[in-house]
Fold this protein.
Amino acid sequence: MLRTLRVALAAFALGAFSLAHAAPERSVSIGLQAAITSIDPHYHNLSPNNSMLIHIFEPLIARDPNQKLVPALATSWKAIDDLTWEFKLRKNVKFHDGSAFTADDVVFTLNRVPNVPNSPSSFATFTKPIVDVKVVDPHTLIFKTASPHVLLPSDLASVLIVSKLNGEKATTADYNSGKAAIGTGPYKFVEYIQNQHVLLKANYGHWAGEQPWDKVTFKILSNPAARVAALLSRDVQMIETVPTSDIAKFEKDANFMLADKVSNRVIYVHLWQWSDKSPPFVTAKDGKPLDKNPFKDARVRKALSMAINRDAISDRVMEKKSVPAAQLLADTFYGTSKKLKPQKYDPEGAKKLLAEAGYPNGFAMTVHGTNNRYINDDKIAQTIAQFYSRIGIDTKVETLPAGTYFSRATNGEFGYMLLGWGTESGEQGSSLRSLLATRNPEKGMGVNNRGRYSNPAMDEQLVKALVTMDDKKREGLIQAAAETAMNDTALIPIHYEVSTWATAKGYRYTPRTDQYTLAMDLKPVK
Amino acid sequence: MLAFAIRRLGQSFFVLVVMSFIVFLGVFAVGNPIELLVNPQADEAERLRATVALGLDKPILEQYAVFLKGAVTGDLGRSFVFNVPAIQLILQKLPATIELALAAMLIAVGLGIPLGLLAGLRPHSFVGRSIMALSIVGFSLPTFWVGLVLIMLFSVHLGWLPSNGRGETVMLLGVPVSFLTWDGLQHLAMPALNLALFKLSLLIRLTRAGAREAVLQDYVKFARAKGLGPRRVIGVHVLKNILVPIVTVIGLELGSVIAFAIVTESIFAWPGSGKLLIDSINLLDRPVIVAYLMVIVTLFIAINFFVDVLYSMLDPRVRLGSASTAH
């Protein structure tokens, strides 16, 4: 009480003195869905962290709202030969403590990344391809890779640069406390409390010019209803991930504005193809195991895709905040094929194909999915099951929390599994490699191929694409690989999630494909 | 009495160890945290590195042994997600939860006992019936829904109270509390009321039933016949005699209100330990889940212990009874 009084008095006194010339402080509060687990930019590779830390720290190369690479701390970069890259760094950039940014900070960062203790998900994946770094002058760097690595610029866009001066002995705790949280970004760190909030203030000396906000408060509001209520009561001026059930309300209300954009996340189905045996939870209608694996038959896979009415899911389950999918990324992204179109809804055709494949009376199976991970994931599973019942497949549904579900899906315990995948690189090659390439962990192929789909023809096209340095040529090869896979129904794409943000009147957000919520993209409007 | 207390402490310790094993097994069975912690884009080598770094490559019994060894020295493990000691994380969040729980109990006791007494003494009046009707509403409406209605009314429509968060805190004996500032009180009001509602209804019904029974007893009739004023009859003879079951319930409910403030905390984004638990479960942050449950079990045991003591102060017969069962 006393303290409040004192603060109030002090504020009053200050106010009286500065009333004449002080501009009102431009502050904004933003409601986030997921907790920030650390302020250390190399501790936990998690989207909410990466989205937050890009305010404080900057990468060499940034991604624009469409995930296209744009200069940040590096002004230009080029491949000199298949194994050598040259990066030119921006001059006259200062860290928040006033020290200058140079090539040494980049070298320090690259050395720190693989060595953060206890990191639950390291950023080393992005720096591993670099085998040697040469400092030519304080603003020129040469990187060497062991093999041709076309994704190097994209990888480096995920690595935030820290200061050598402040980071030499810093631990993750020093970043969390703010002691070492000194970057070059447009906002300075003020305070971080786990599961509660992050406070930032503007960095007026930023190279890109001034930001519209002096103060930004990010509040963690994981409960969707709480997030909506906070916006309605103006406790925050913007929220991310608007629950689909509230979208219609915000659309009608002139006091609020919605911003949405097709994201880099596809919701899709993996079909169990680990062996020729009858897949888990897939049986004949009388409960006996099938004599072979129906999912190994491209006709069955195609039929299962044809039976899904994607437009109905988008209209009725997703409130139109999803776009029927034809491949692993929406066709505005690099490496996607314009020739691929979403599978048309055709239950009769599906029945015919099933009959051709030897299942005129269908079979029985269980649709497995998460119930707390993707937008409306459990409702989508229910809807899909209904479509299958219509073509004569006895379908059950089981949805599980992500914590249990992913472990079991990885172990091959489900036959028909509903999953989601966000392509952080923004190019389809990396998704094909992770989800559909024949599994080979040593080579980093098929790491998330939970269905164990395997197609040598696609593998060959993909491997060639991954070592082709020429962007145009590579794109053609990735498109070809995607066409091979999707024409074979290697997996069943359902839709691309549309990310939504809602702002109060007077604020406008430029929506992003990577689902990041950035104060830099929030502008005041009259 | 001392022997009884020591024996009870021994039992409590045994309960703690058994609980820790059950919790450890249970959390282990849920799933592999690596699936949620490691970025899906990462390769197999990275997954393996993280598995080893977090000690998840060891068999469960070995992991449990490591945990027990640390637990003896007060180290309940490090959070996978936040890389700080789990117990520190919980102790940081616990004051907010305890403050919320105590505020809720204060509302429940402060309103519940007088209202219950009123309803018990005048069961057929309009006031008595209204109180009972209210308590039924308090019982039957889900906390979740009531919380949202409160927010819609007081934050969105009237704009009187903030919809989320804890507000300004000040340090009291080294613990941040929010009930000493106006801003903090405003933030506290709705979640505390929301959490209190169920307990309030419970206490109303309990007090009413007790009071109705007590007023028919001979000692109350005798007290009246002696010519004592109604204030003394109700305050001493009725209230003191019905307080024993009420104190028991308050004690038990205090534990549960701390342990299960989760729903309220998540609706009002109250930064307490319940919200921490939910977030930890969603990320399979095993050390935090285990440590949280251990803290809660300890809390329950402690509260029950104090309830027993309070009990014996209200009713000497209890002391005799417990002494005789303990031999």
Q: What stands out?
A: Chain A touches chain B through 59 residues (CB under 8 Å). Confidence is low (pLDDT under 50) at residues 7-22 of chain A.
